Amino acid sequence: xxxKNQYNVLVDMDEAGYTQPATIESDGLEFQDFSSNTGQHGSxxxxxxxxxxxxxxxxxxxxxxRRSGANKAIWSLDYYSxxxxxxxxxxxxxxxxxxxxxxxxxxxxxxxxxxxxxPFWIATTVVFAMFVxxxxxxSLAAYxxxxxxxxxxxxxxxxxxVVYSYGFLCPAxxxxxxxYFGCQPSLLEIVNYYGYGLTVWIPVSIxxxxxxxxxxxxxxxxxxxxxxxxxxxxxxxVISKTDAKTSRxxxxxxxxxxxxxxxxxxxxSSRRQRKILERQQHKAAQLKQDTKTYVNQSPFRYVExxxxxxxxxxxYSKVIxxxxxxxxxxxxxxxxxxxxxxxxxxxxxxxxxxxxxDIPGLVLILNPFSHKGQRQLIRECLSLxxxxxxxxxxxxxxxxxxxxLWPLCEKEHRGQLDPSFVVPRxxxxxxxxxxxxxxxxxxxxxxxxxxxxxxxxxxxxxWVTLGYQYHWPTKTYHFDKRYPMPKLVDxxxxxxxxxxxxxxxxxxxxxxxxxEDFKAEAGVVNYYQYRDALMGHVDxxxxxxxxxLISISLGNSCIYVIGxxxxxxEPVPLALHSGDIVVMTKPCRKFFHGVPRIIEDxxxxxxxxxxxxxxxxDDWELYSKxxxxxxxxxxxxxxFPP
Length: 642
Prior knowledge:
This protein is an alpha+beta fold. The chain folds into three domains: 1-81, no CATH class; 91-277, no CATH class; 331-392 and 461-606 and 617-637, Jelly Rolls. It is 39% helix and 12% strand. The longest helix has 29 residues, at 117-145. It is elongated, with a radius of gyration of 40 Å.
C-alpha cells in the first residue's frame, strides 16, 4: 500500500527473469483504480487524456485499420498496402463463400479483417473474362456466318467501366447513404461485399459464350439473383439500424443495381455480338456486290466466291439443276450409245443423257443407280478402298492399320473399343522406313496432329488414291506404285465408257473415244464434309488426255462448276445429286472445273433410312451416320494410251 492510500494490482509473473513492469502498452492489461473518492482518501485523479487525433481520417472504419494506419497519410501507398496483405487461400475461401451465402460473411468469413486485394483481383478477372468470352463468342458467330472477324477493343473499355463502377463506385454510394441516415458502416466491408459478390460472374461470363440467348439470360439471371441475395443479407445488418421505411428504400436501391449489372453483362455477349456480326455481314454483302472489290480476280474465281459465301448466302439463280428443270434451255437431251446395263443400275433405265450448249465434251447422266446399288458402292468406298496399300491423306500423319480405319469405326460403334483408345500418330522413324526406297518422298508426319477416335478421324479423310498412286506434292503419278483397280469400279466405269461412245452435240462436237479402248488405271475417291471445297483446277497428269474422265457423286448434293481452258471464262454451275455421273470427254478435259460448295441437308432418304428390301440394314446405321454430313466422289481416268 502506498503512502497515499491507493491500491495497485500486483501481477505474479511466471518467469522470474522478467522484470519489466506490466503496462497497458506492453501486455494489453487494463488497470482498475480502487482508491476511495471521499474523505481522507482525497479526490480522484483526473481521467487520462484522450488519444491524440490522427492527422488522417480513416474512411474504412475498422479496428485493424485504426491500429495499423493511424499514422499514415491516406494518399500514401503504405496506407493501402495493409489491405493487400492477405493470403491467396483466404481470398479463395471468401470467393467460395459468396457462392453459398450462409451465415454472417463479415464475422464468419472476413473475421473483421476485410481486404482490398480480393475485390480488386476479382473485378479485374471479371473484366478479363467478359472481354475474352465476348470476343470469342463474336468470333464463333463470325465463323459460323463465314465472315471476317475483328476484335472490338471497345468491349474492354466497356467492361472496365461497368465492373469497376459496380465494384467500387456502388459501395461508396451505399456507404454515403447509410452514413447519411445515421448508420456506422465500414466502407471496406461494403467494398468486400460488392467485390467478392462478383465471383459468380466469372463462370457466368464463360458460359455466356454459347450462342443461345435463352440460356445466357438464365445464367445471367441466376448470377444476378445470387449476388443480390448475398448483398441484401449482409448489408441488412447495417441498414436495419435506420427506421423501417428508410431500410426498405435502401434495400430496393441496392437490388435495383443487380438487374442493371445483369443487363450490361448480357448485352456484352448478346447485343454487342449481334451488332458486330450485323456490321460484318453488311460489309461483306457490300463487298460482294461491288465488282471493283474483285477487280483483280478472274470470272472463275468470282463464281467460286459466290458459292463459298455463307453470309450473304450464295446466289443460286444461275445454277442448272436438271433434276428440277429437265428442259433447261442451256441443256440438250441426247441418246446414249447403249443401255446402261450393270447390276448397280436401276432396271429399265432410259438410255438418255444431257449435254450443255456452252461446254463441249461434257456429258451428264442423271442418277441411273438403284438404291441398293448406291449403298453397295458407298460401302466399298468407306470400308474397302480406304485400306492400304491405297494411299490416303491420313497416311502421312497416322499409323493406319492394315485392315483400314473403317473396322475400327465399327468396333467403336459397337462399344468394343476402350473409351480411351485413339488412333496412334506415325513416327518419324516409320516415315523414314517408308520413304527410303521411294524416288518421290511424301511430307514428314507432324507430331502436333491431334489424337482422335477412329470415327472422328474418319471425318478427316479427304482422299484415297486407286490404281496408280498419285504423288500430290509434284502432281505426278508413282509409276512404280500401281495396285489393282477395284473390280466394281473397273466394271462400272467400263460400262459408262461404252454408253457415252459417240455421244455429241448436233455436229458441234462428238466423243470419238471408243468404249472398248477405255481402261480404268487410276482413280481418286474424294470425301467432302459440309465446309469443304475443291478449287478450280485442270487434271493434266495423265499421259492420255483423250480418254474420258468419269466422275460419280454419292451422298449430299454439291455445286459443280466448269469453265474453259483459262479462268477468264465464266464457269457454268451445275447441281449434282447422289448417283449423278459426269463424263468429261476430250473437248473439255483441259477445262477448269471445281466443287466450291457442298449443299447441306440434301442426303437422300434412302441413304439415311433402312430399306425394306435389303438384309443389310444392321450395319447401315454407321454408314448413314457418316454420310449425314458428307459427299463422296469417285473419279476414274486412264493414264496411258490404249
